[in-house]
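Consortium newsletter contribution from the modelling node. Members have asked for a concrete example of what our holo predictions look like. Here is one, prepared for the heme C complex that several groups have been discussing at recent meetings.
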Amino acid sequence: MSLKILSKMLIAAACGAILTSGAVRADTIEEKAAVCSGCHGEKGVPVNAVTPIIWGQMEGYLYLELRDFKKGARKNEIMSGIASSLERDDMLALAAYFAAKPWPNLNQPSASDAVTKQAATANGSIGCTGCHLDKYQGTGSVPRLAGQNHDYLAKTLADFRSGERGNNPGMSSLASATSESDLAALETYLAGM
Ligand code: HEC
Ligand code: HEC
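And here is the predicted structure:
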């Protein structure tokens, strides 16, 4: 990575008179984003079930997660290492880059009527959509959940419950206050939206 950056800088210095600074910046972001695509997917479809969709996710949320991984407020073997090499400007640029991409369709099965009803009842008492918005589309620093990778949703809600994901105490309390059965229904429902 650092070698690539160095060669970029050398090329930029050599071609400085020709290249506009905007072109150099855009180039750099494409290159950084290519690293992410190794797991989050070339077309936004993650390479495995426990990797989240980041294409089309809320810009503010993407930035906050990268910042939290770097600060250590959210821990993950892979992402903590990756985020530690990013500066604030990179994170802001990557968040804007991925937020502007279209959300991919993972074609996960729609929930059955019974599961849909259970998810709606759980939402009725907890009010998930009060923050995640109608149809779970997300807003600002509140993430979109509709159509997210099922196994990732299950993993991260379990992490909120156990405190393994400790960057949002509010979500941890809510996940702990919800029965495992209701959470499972919500996960199936959300993935199939
Ligand atoms: C080697 C695989 C891998 C690479 C490369 C990778 N990620 Fe991740 N990323 C993951 C996994 C796995 C998670 C889920 C972590 C967890 O369970 O908490 C994740 C989580 C995230 C999240 C949190 C999403 C959410 O819904 O909470 C963001 C944002 C993110 N990655 C951005 C990036 C960016 C930007 C890059 C490139 C600079 C990148 N990732 C590179 C595997 C990877
Ligand atoms: C008071 C507002 C609020 C309510 C109510 C709420 N959430 Fe959240 N939720 C958030 C915020 C804010 C985040 C982002 C936390 C962070 O910065 O990491 C989040 C994150 C999540 C995530 C992680 C998404 C990802 O990509 O990693 C899941 C899953 C989730 N919420 C599910 C739910 C469910 C299910 C309910 C209802 C049982 C619910 N939330 C209720 C505010 C809320």
